[in-house]
Amino acid sequence: MMDLDHVGVVVLSLQAGVEHWQKVFGYKQFTEEVINTRQKVKVVFLKKENSLPVKLIEPVGSDSPIYRFAKKGGGLHHLCFKCDKMEEELERLEELGLRVLVSPEPGEAFDDENIAFVFAKQGLNIELIDTDKRARIIAEEES
């Protein structure tokens, strides 16, 4: 079973992206910045009550796979689905004709739990996770 977990959006600047999503959509930053050394990106998660979380993604250097996309203005990068067993889900998706872009590897934004990426029809990048963990969560303000 797969459930939609979050939407990934590429931005040129995390700070500007967070400010935009706060002003325009009412989201709040949920995690501190985390650097993913394998994907060469910096990410933060945003959340809003009764809404799907958003992960903002900024390239770290011109050798980041998303650098050119960010320079062109960025935008929707991926949909992330949480599944029960990643390896089994990857096999199922491959059998359905989806192409694995990134085999399971530790994702720093998920406390080093495995992440994977597949490419689906309609040009969609799909991230797979099998955890609820998030790294560097910002403490809730006490009332």
Descriptive account of the structure:
This protein has three helices and nine strands, in the order E-H-E-E-E-E-H-E-H-E-E-E. By secondary structure, the chain is of the alpha+beta class. It starts with a strand and ends in a 14-residue tail after the last strand.
Specify the overall morphology: globular
Oligomer: single chain
Number of strands: 9
Q: What structural class results from the helix and strand content?
A: alpha+beta
Series of secondary-structure elements, N-terminal to C-terminal: EHEEEEHEHEEE
Nearest-integer average pLDDT: 95
Number of helices, counting only DSSP H or I runs of 4 residues or more: 3
Low-confidence stretches: none
- Report the sheet-strand fraction: 35-45%
What is the helix content? Answer: 10-25%
How far apart lie the N and C ends? 37 Å
User: What's the Cα radius of gyration?
Assistant: 15 Å
Biggest sheet features: 9 strands, mixed
